[in-house]
Amino acid sequence: MTEPTATMINEQKLYKAWGLSEAEFKIICDKILHRLPNYTEAGLFSVMWSEHCSYKNSKNVLRKFPNKGKRVLAGPGEDAGIIDIDDNQAVVFKAESHNHPSAVEPYQGAATGVGGIIRDIFSMGATPIAMLNSLKFGNLTDEHTKYLANEIVAGIGGYGNCIGIPTVGGEISFQERYKNNPVVNAMCVGLINNSDIKYGKAKGENNLIIYVGAKTGRDGIHGATFASDEFTDDNKSQRSAVQVGDPFMEKLLMDACIELVQEHSDWIMGIQDMGAAGLVSSTAEMASKAESGLVLELDQVPQRETNMTPYEIMLSESQERMVLCAKPQYRDEIIKFFNDAGLDAVVIGKVTADKQYKIYQHGELVTDIPVAGLVDDSPEYVHEGQTPKRLLSENYQEQYVPQVSSLSKTWLELLKQPNIASKEYFYQTYDSQIKANTVVKPGSDATVVRVRGTRKALAMTNDGNSKLVYVDPYVGGQIAIIEASANLIASGSEPVGITDCLNYGNPEKPEVFWEFNRSVEGMASVCETLELPVISGNVSLYNEFNDEAIYPSPMIGMVGLTKDLDDVTTQGFKNDGDAIYLVGTTKNDYNGSEIQLMQTGDVKGSLNEIDLAQIKANQKQILQAIQAGLIASCHDVSEGGLAVALAEAAFENQLGFEVKTSLTSEEIFSETTGRFLVSVKADQKAAFEKLFNDDIEFLGTVSNEQTLRLTTSNSDANVDLNEALKNWKEAIPCLMK
Amino acid sequence: MKFAVVVFPGSNCDKDLFFAIKDGIKEEVELVNFQETSLDGFDAVLIPGGFSYGDYLRSGAIAGHAPIIPAIKQMAAEGKPVLGICNGFQILTEIGLLPGALIKNNHNRFICETVPLQVMNNQTQFTSEYEADQVIDIPVAHGEGNYYCDEATLKELKDNDQIAFKYQADINGSVDYIAGITNKEKNVLGMMPHPERALEKLVGSDDGLKMFQSILKNHMDRVNQ
Predict the structure, then answer these.
(1) Given pLDDT bands bounded at 50, 70 and 90, which one contains residue A237?
(2) The pLDDT of residue A365 is above 60
(3) Residues of chain B with pLDDT under 50
(4) Is the confidence at residue A240, as pLDDT, over 60?
(5) Which of these CATH numbers, 1.10.260.40, 3.40.1190.10, 3.30.565.10, 3.90.650.10, describes A399-421+569-737?
(6) Exposure class string for A712-728: b at 16+ Cβ within 10 A, else e
(7) Which of A459, A668, B51, B54 has the smallest C-beta neighbourhood within 10 Å, fewest atoms?
(8) Options 3.40.50.300, 3.30.70.600, 3.30.710.10, 3.90.650.10; which CATH number does A66-375 get?
């Protein structure tokens, strides 16, 4: 096949099929190149200027997030963000979406999402210690959804289990709107000594560009552009854009890269993973960060297939590949080092001073464009927002009133709802215990992983209730941050930083953009109040199927520093006779709730305003109480309200309770954010109560009896613990049959 | 006592075993590359879990042809303790040091959880610190841990007291709920569960510690004889 000429690309507007607009093409011709780009060059611009690589539609909104803080060592812009955790150690983390590939080829789509995020962590020089994921599917009553769920979960497990990083936590939720466009977000957390941190820079004229890892094939070409487009029935078959993962290769690559950084740091200037937009994105970004130029010699690039064009080589998203910028005097040592590990390592180019990005193939110059034009000069769009119609409908401010004719019946029914029921069926297929550091396993508010050789631990969570963001983007966004923070606090950890995946529909639609912008403003407001920096993340837009967007779905990945292992706390009640308290005031918060969904089949209505100062004060006091050793168990009260929180606290160690509350049988299902369900040893009641003054209610006591006894102000229920547990535990396996 | 932990490409529990020896029983331990051909100077060899060679072809099959294998066989022939865990167990069956095979879990899913195991034989150098019939909590994490052998082999395993551990429920389809077996001489043990992940109550269970203590104690008894 002969490639179209520059003139043909211009006249036939071929660039449009790659996602470049006419206006963008004009900028490239008139402002950057002052000539027409050839086929390869046009291809490079189209991927580098895709939303996935350039954030052209979202940059303006993302600036609203705070990204600085006293512990922040590196923020957005690097492969991953870095937070100091004292003692010359730091935690490195990032999350990434793989929604589109997972919709088309669920196993490989999810697996390569995991592989990509792991590379982002070890490319900083860090050792990955844990993985989390956030998955949103359609309803499990649908056969195709079951298939997607099974394959996506198997892909995540298949990759993570093989490479040997524990998959320790996450969240899974279900809603019709994700049926054809599932959300698959993966997060990786790594540890590093501060002195080992490596940045992805191609610095110093004549330093070498070295390609390491798997060979380049024709897989995944234009994956980044694919990720920046909507799904319709017509383009569902874009299978060529999905890559195939090889976790074994990645394990070799990971071990070698970490050893290189730890033992031979002086050999290299920078290291970067080849992710979306493959070779072009990784090398161009390294050059841009160092304000350098680059020359690449494509004949040297290890290739899996014959007769690959420059366009194909540069845009391939073959997996398990890295790029190094190395000092020329260590060339032979580096190549031998990787060969000994069973990996290809080849010099493919060098750093230049002219700030141009030049590519040669067969002795011919096939690309010659300014690095800055490619990486930094992508246009930035500020879209017009428009309040979605659903939010303006009549009576939207009114709260839903739940119908609770039988407290025990409603309670048991709610425990069976897929969003609330145990997700063990899925997470049991992930190796969560490898490395023998997992102190709190999946299933509690947050997972806790100890830092070997210290008394410290890291707590981590993925959270984002998209139902709430859908009904009220601003307050729903606020709650996403509050809940993630509460998860860490409840586990005895101090939140130190955030990564996010922002999954939305097409931002060119005013209503979608409005949702995106307002929810980010909501999230940012809480980040400011709680002093939490957003240090890395990813935006996934165009999540639509046949013109209908998914729910606005921000996923918050948050990491906390547990100062001492003695502070580690779980949600389950511990001892017969312990006192149970509810911390925080319960209001009528039923809009967007699980009980509204269960009883009406839909969620709607705006959310009540949140008192952030009160949230902050309560979270701070809970952490202090845990650190003072006053708390036996602590559970964040969220979906399903106090009723579900009580049941979950009972399940962990199979202990019953006797609770009498001033709340009504309706209020017991309210989802007011910022509340905690706490149990306290009998002899510490006085000390605990003294700390909290009036924002607590004594609820009752934990008991050895296998019964959940609940008395509200207008009803009561005695539920058999095992029956409740069965409802909660067996709902998902039953649906997956 | 000096332990070797063999590292194949794709092994991923090698460091956990390393820490089990170094921090768990505080003995000498070295990671030994699969390309080595000698285990001279080591008193025991541990084959870790993981996905050697990506488990491509068949789990443990390619590792079974690595340069280090003859040295492992020699250790076994000399009566020294050889312990294979998870992928290590699969490798031991591949190279014929243990009978039977590990096939896909009958439910076709990977399974990770801490399960109760019954100690079936506490008269081995791996289990002597456990009580007879003691039930211990040890994590499993495998997709191909379904132990299979034919009737005659099973009878032989039973007759020779080679069954070391049994699950308390059918978690993966294993014949007779078998979780771990020894050779006839009882110096080679293969097991799917991971004792190296159960050394501290902090991470869920410390029931695995006694296995490493057993190996050490029996070695010291031999040395002191």
Answers:
(1) very low
(2) yes
(3) none
(4) no
(5) 3.90.650.10
(6) beebebebebeebbebb
(7) B54
(8) 3.90.650.10
- Measured CB to CB, residues of chain B less than 8 Å from chain A are 9-10, 12-13, 15-16, 19, 50-51, 53-56, 109-114, 139, 141, 143, 194, 196-197, 199-200, 202-204
The verdict on whether B86 is a catalytic residue reads: yes
Span B2-224 CATH architecture: 3-Layer(aba) Sandwich (3.40)
What is the spatial distance between Cα A680 and Cα A700, in angstroms, rounded to a whole number?
11
Question: Hey, where are the domains in chain B?
Answer: 2-224
Q: What is the pLDDT of residue A239?
A: 45
B143 chain-A contacts, CB cut-off 8 A: 161
Residue A71 phi, psi dihedral angles, 5° rounding? -95, -5
User: How close is the nearest chain A Cα to the Cα of B38, in Å?
Assistant: 19
Angle, to 10 degrees, between the axis of helix A721-736 and the axis of helix A641-652? 100
Identify each DSSP E strand in A565-695 by its residue range: 579-583, 633-637, 656-660, 675-680
How close, in Å, is residue B64 to chain A by CA atoms? Answer: 17
Task: Tell me the residues of chain A between 430 and 469 that have a Cβ less than 8 Å away from chain B.
Answer: 430-439, 441, 450, 452
Query: B194 catalytic, yes or no?
Result: yes
pLDDT (mean) for A606-621: 96
Best CA proximity match to A112, nearest among A292, A320, A305, A330: A320
Start and end residues for every CATH 3.90.650.10 domain found in chain A: 66-375, 399-421+569-737
pLDDT at residue A232, as a whole number = 64
Residue A228 has what pLDDT? 60
Residues A714-737, mean pLDDT to the nearest whole number: 97
Q: What is the mean pLDDT of chain A?
A: 94
Considering Cα of A246, then A252, then A255, then A260, what sign does the dihedral take? negative
- Disruptive mutation site among B7, B8, B11, B12 for chain A (greatest number of A CBs within 10 Å): B12
**Half-sphere exposure for B15 (CA within 13 Å, toward CB):** 12
Strand, coil or helix: A199:
coil
Q: Is A362 part of the annotated catalytic residue set?
A: no
Between CA A200 and CA A295 the distance in angstroms is: 17
Distance between CA A39 and CA A55 in Å, rounded? 23
If you measure CA to CA, which chain B residue comes closest to A343?
A: B9
Residues of B in contact with A441 (CB under 8 A): 204
Tens digits of residue pLDDT in A277-323: 889 999 999 999 999 999 999 999 999 999 999 999 999 988 899 99
pLDDT of residue B175: 98
Q: Which residue of A has its CA nearest to B114?
A: A433
What pLDDT is recorded for position A234?
58
| pLDDT at position B1 | 97
- DSSP single-letter state for residue A30: I
